[in-house]
Amino acid sequence: MRSIKKGDKLPSVTLYEALPENQTNILDLVANKKAIIFGVPGAFVPGCSRVHLRGFIEKSTDLKLLGFEEIICVSMNDPFVMSAWGNARGANDKVMTSMK
Which residues of this protein are catalytic (predicted)? Predict the structure, then answer.
C-alpha cells in the first residue's frame, strides 16, 4: 500500500457526508491543511470498527495537537451507512466518515 506524502497530488474526488447532497471535493477539503486520509473496506465491518476507525477516534486529540486539521475515513458505502456508522462509533466530531 502506498502512502500519500507531503507534496503528492491527490486526485479530484467527490466525497459525500451524511447525505448525497452534502458533497465536497477532497482537494477543497484538504487544501492547505495537514490531513489524514484512510480507507476501510466497509462500514460496520468488525475489524474496521474495532481497530481502524476506533484507533483514529481514540487518537484524534493527539493527532490534532500534532497539527492534523482533518481526519477523513473513506469507504465505498453510501453516505447514509457511513453517517450511521460514524454516529454509532462516536466519530462525528473527531473523524469525518465519507463515501468515495
Answer: 48 (cysteine sulfenic acid (-soh) intermediate)
